[in-house]
Amino acid sequence: MSEPKIKVLYIDDELHNLNAFKAAFRREYDILLAESAEEGRAVLQQQESEIPVIISDQRMPGETGIEFFESIKDIYPYSLRILLTGYTDIQAVISAVNIGNIFRYLQKPWNEEEIHQTILAAFEIYHSRVQLIEKNKELEKAYNELDKFVYSASHDMRAPLMSILGITRLARLEKDQEPEPYFVMIEQSVLKLDDFIKNIIDYYKNNRFDQEIKSIDLKTLIENCIESNRYQTGSKEIDFRLKVDQQAEFKSDELKLSIILNNLISNAIKYRNESANPPFVDVSAQCDENQAVIRVADNGVGIPESEIENIFKMFYRAANNNSGSGIGLYIVKDAITRLEGTISLQSALDQGTTFQLEIPNKL
Amino acid sequence: MTIPGRSYTFLHIDDNNLDLLITSRFLQHAKLAETVHTYTSANLTLQHIREEHFDELPIIILLDIQMPELNGFDFLDRFAELPPAVTSRYHIYMLSSTLDPKDRTRVQEHPFVIDLLTKPLDTDLLRTLLEKLPD
C-alpha cells in the first residue's frame, strides 16, 4: 500500500505559472490550483482536512500572498505557508515572516529541487504537528480516566472496608450472638473488594501490554474462563453450557480475549435470576479463517433498555445491587477495540442477556 | 425542647444491603431509632415521600452518595422540587465512605443537607447532631 500523495495548494494569478507548476510536480504531489486568494480560500473550504502545504505568489491583483496568508493562518493553523515571488523585495520578506507567519520564502523562477525539498520539509513539520495533537488527545483521555479512577477508588475500594469496620463494631456490640453471620458478611465485603482489585489489574494489563498474537484453542480458553469463575458467589447454582465449533486455527491475543470472556461470564453469574430453573450460562463459539464469533448468553435479570447505551461507560452501574463496580464492561469494550473486534448485545428484563463478540482471526 | 434519649424515625437510602443492615442495627443499639425504613433505591424513597407514606415528625434521612440510577445528589435535586410543607418535615444527613473533597464541598453548599457523616455511622456523633435540631 503506497502512502497517499501530499496535498499542495498553489495560488498564482498567472495561468501559465499554474500549469507549469502542476506539470512539474503532479507526479509526486496531489496538486490543487487557484488563480486568486479568494479562489484559494474556496479550495481550502472544500477540503475535509487541512492542506499540509500552501504555496502562494506574492503579487496578485486584489489581495497579495502575504495578506492571504494572514487571513488564513488562524483558520488553518497546521498548514505550512510558503511564499513564492519574482521580486526581491525586502519589505515583502519581513512582512511575510512577521504577518503571514510563513515557513519559507522562495524565488521565481523556481528551482525544482528546492521546491521538492521545501515541500518535504514543510510536510514533515505538518506531520509532527498532527501527531502532537493526537498524542495530546490520548494524554487527555488518560488524564480523565485517572481523574475518574481516583474519585471512584475512594468509593469502590473504601466502601467494602468501611462495611467490614462496621461489622466488626457491630459484632463487638452484640457479643452474645453467634459469630457465623458476621463472618458471612465480612466474607461478602472482602470478595467485593477483591473483585474490584482484580478488575483494576485486568484494566492495566489490557492497557500496558503489547498485543501478543498466538494460536488459541477456543475450547480450552473458554473452559479455563468458566473454571476461574467457579468460586464466585452463586456459581454453584449455575448450569454451564459450552459448545465450540472451531473450523480453523485461530490467532488473536489470548490475554485480552480471556479478560473479555472472564468479565462476561462473571457478569452472567452475578446477574443470574435466582428464580430461574436452573439459571444457566451458555457459551458458544464458532470460528473460521476470518473470525471467531463467541456468544455468552444467560437467562438472568437482563438489562433495562434505557441502560444499554450506558453499560460500557467507565464506572457506570446499571443494576441496583451492591456487587458491581462499573468497570468490568468498560474493560471489555476497551479490550474488544484493541482486538479490532466488535461487541453487541441483546437483553430483555427478567429473561436474560446475550453478548455477541466478533473477533478477527489474525492468521 | 429535646427530650433526652429521644428516638426518631429514619429513612436510610443505600444501594448496599449490608450497609443498610449495619447502620440499622447501630441505630437500634444506640436507641436512636423508633423505626428505620430502608431503601436500596432513591427513586422508591422519593415516591414514598411524595405519596406521604410517613406521618411521623420529624423524619431523619440518611443518604448514601454513590448509587446507580439516582445517586445521592440526584435525589436531593428532586427532593428540592417538592413543596416546602413536605420538605420541612425531613432532616437530611449524607452517610458515605467518600474521601472526595468535592463531595464534602457539594454537601456543605447544599441547602437541604445538614452534614456529611462517614461510614461506619458514629451514633454518638449523630445523637449530638440530632439534639441540635430545632424542635
Multimer state: heterodimer
- Number of distinct beta strands of chain A: 12
- Percent helix of chain A, as a range, is 40-55%
**Radius of gyration of chain A, CA atoms, in whole angstroms:** 31 Å
What is the mean pLDDT of chain B? 90
Main β sheet profile of chain A? 5 strands, parallel
Q: What separation lies between the terminal Cα atoms of chain A?
A: 20 Å
Uncertain runs of chain A are none
Proportion of residues in extended strands of chain A: 15-25%
Largest interface: A-B, 27 and 28 residues
Q: What's the order of the H and E elements of chain B? A: EHEHEHHEHEH
Backbone structural class of chain B: alpha/beta
- How does the helix and strand content of chain A classify structurally? alpha/beta
- Overall outline of chain A: elongated
Describe the structure.
Chain A is an alpha/beta fold. Chain A contains 11 helices and 12 strands. Chain A has helices at residues 15-25, 37-46, 65-72, 90-98, 112-156, 158-173, 180-208, 218-228, 254-270, 305-308, 328-338, and strands spanning 6-11, 29-34, 53-57, 80-85, 104-107, 213-216, 239-246, 250-253, 280-287, 291-298, 342-348, 352-360. Chain A has a 5-stranded parallel beta sheet with strand order 2-1-3-4-5, sandwiched between helices. A 5-stranded mixed beta sheet of chain A has the order 7-9-10-12-11, covered by helices on one side. Chain A has a two-stranded antiparallel sheet with strand order 6-8. In chain A, helix 8 (218-228) packs across helix 9 (254-270) and helix 9 (254-270) packs antiparallel against helix 11. Chain A is elongated. The model of chain A has no long low-confidence stretch (mean pLDDT 89). Chain B has 6 helices and 5 strands. Chain B has helices at 17-29, 42-50, 72-80, 84-87, 101-109, 123-131, and strands at residues 8-13, 33-39, 59-63, 90-96, 113-118. In chain B, strands 2-1-3-4-5 form a 5-stranded parallel beta sheet, with helices on both faces.
